TrEMBL record:
CDD domains: AKR_unchar. It comes from the Bacteria. SUPFAM superfamilies: NAD(P)-linked oxidoreductase (SSF51430). Residues 6-280 form the NADP-dependent oxidoreductase domain. This is Putative Aldo/keto reductase. InterPro entries: AKR2_Oxidoreductase, NAD(P)_OxRdtase_dom_sf, NADP_OxRdtase_dom.
């Protein structure tokens, strides 16, 4: 089993998720197949959260049944509503997560609310460092939505990991120099939303009426991929691997086949010419497309 730079996101095994999700939440048999295929393919890191429905519970049970709980690297998130005040809430969430996951230590405790960066205090740093000293966590991370928040997180001595969105259409964090900043500080980056919550898989005619604003860019993207003889999966993973070297890449899956397709795609190297064409075609895509919170209903 060779290692990979992919992290399996497990929101899909805990709840319905993604605009292009046609199958819904997998049953327990499918969840086992997903996790087994990931592990056999070299994926040893998993992303979950208290807020992902039954994800923590299902992940914990299946990894325990597989006999790999002590080997797996698990990242989870406390409730996103935590405002940086009473850290006992975070500790309570952490203990609940460890129990459900059948592990004694998290790889990364990942805060899912970038607003806490504005209220971060030395007391919070002391609290997370105490959790490290107790062996409850290895790393502390923050998932962010803006380049400014990424810079603040990277500059925080108590934060080891920053999770950011990036994909075929999204240049924001690249232009802000986030990769160089992380490398200069020895911090780890995780890249999420490489499929833009499934939007990139959709043909323009499949878009709901309230998302007609994305039709032109989707059509242009699919045209480039068709001419380049690339699948969306291969292009999305290969592009991020090329543009964000050394970074972990978060993927999700609703079926075993999707896991296997992602693993295969991760072995495909995209030519510099195709990468340059994509970057030229999409230099500054509207945030209305890049930010799912702006999609409306």
């Amino acid at each position: 089993m060779s290692k990979t730079n992919l992290i399996l996101g497990t929101v899909q095994i805990g709840m319905n998720y993604g605009i292009a999700n046609a199958t819904g939440k997998p049953d327990i048999k499918t969840a086992r197949e997903i996790l087994q295929a990931a592990w056999d393919g070299g994926i040893q890191e998993f992303d979950t959260a208290i807020g992902y429905g039954e994800s923590e519970k299902i992940l914990g049970v299946i990894l325990h049944e597989m006999g790999v709980s002590s080997l797996a690297q698990i990242n989870t998130k406390p409730h996103g509503s935590w405002n940086g005040q009473d850290f006992s809430e975070v500790k309570k969430d952490l203990e609940a997560s460890l129990k459900k996951l059948h592990v004694e230590q998290l790889n990364t405790l990942l805060f899912h609310n970038e607003a806490i960066l504005e209220s971060w205090t030395p007391k919070i740093s002391d609290a997370v460092n105490a959790l490290r000293d107790e062996g409850k966590i290895r790393n502390v991370g923050v998932s962010v939505y803006s380049a400014d928040a990424a810079m603040r997180a990277l500059s925080n001595p108590a934060i080891d990991v920053v999770q950011i969105p990036a994909n075929l259409l999204d240049r924001r964090f690249e232009k802000a120099g986030i990769l160089h900043k992380a490398q200069s500080l020895g911090k780890a980056l995780q890249i999420r939303s490489i499929f833009l919550q499934g939007l990139l898989f959709m043909a323009p005619h499949q878009l709901p009426a309230h998302m007609a604003f994305a039709k032109r860019d989707l059509a242009d993207l699919h045209h480039i991929l068709c001419e380049s003889n690339l699948t969306l999966t291969a292009a999305a993973i290969g592009f991020v691997q090329a543009e964000w070297p050394g970074c972990k890449i978060l993927i999700g899956a609703e079926t075993q086949k999707q896991v296997l397709d992602n693993l295969d795609a991760a072995t495909i190297q995209i030519s510099p010419e195709i990468i340059a064409r994509i970057k030229k075609q999409f230099p500054d895509v509207s945030e209305q497309i890049l930010n799912p919170s702006l999609w409306g209903k």
